[in-house]
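Hi V.,

Quick status before I head out on leave. The structure for the redesign project is tokenized and pasted below; the design run finished overnight.
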């Protein structure tokens, strides 16, 4: 990625997120479900704190997938070095929430 001096930090972040989405869509070896889960995570990112907070059951419900499919997709995206996941302690109603962060390969 080239740096564009006229972009604000927010603009830079959105450009990186969009480039990340193009990056995973270009990976033919990733299943379409894996790509969909990645795009869901990317599109629900909060640019201020750099992560999204969703339960895998919520992602599964929103995408019409099984929870097991979402778990496999997250595992694959982590193995590929495209996302990181931090499991947050159980909060209200005793539910664990995962924080997902995008990893931009071109910034490594």
């Amino acid at each position: 990625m080239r740096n564009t001096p006229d972009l604000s930090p927010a603009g830079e972040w959105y450009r990186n997120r969009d480039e990340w989405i193009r990056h995973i869509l270009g990976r033919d070896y990733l299943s379409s479900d894996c790509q969909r889960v990645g795009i869901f995570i990317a599109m629900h990112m909060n640019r201020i704190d750099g992560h999204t907070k969703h339960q895998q059951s919520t992602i599964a419900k929103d995408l019409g997938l099984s929870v097991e499919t979402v778990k496999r997709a997250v595992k694959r995206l982590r193995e590929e070095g495209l996302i990181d996941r931090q499991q947050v302690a159980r909060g209200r109603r005793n539910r664990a929430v995962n924080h997902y962060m995008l990893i931009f390969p071109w910034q490594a």
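Above is the designed sequence. The beta strands are 52-54, 83-88, 97-102.

G. will cover questions while I'm gone.

Best,
W.
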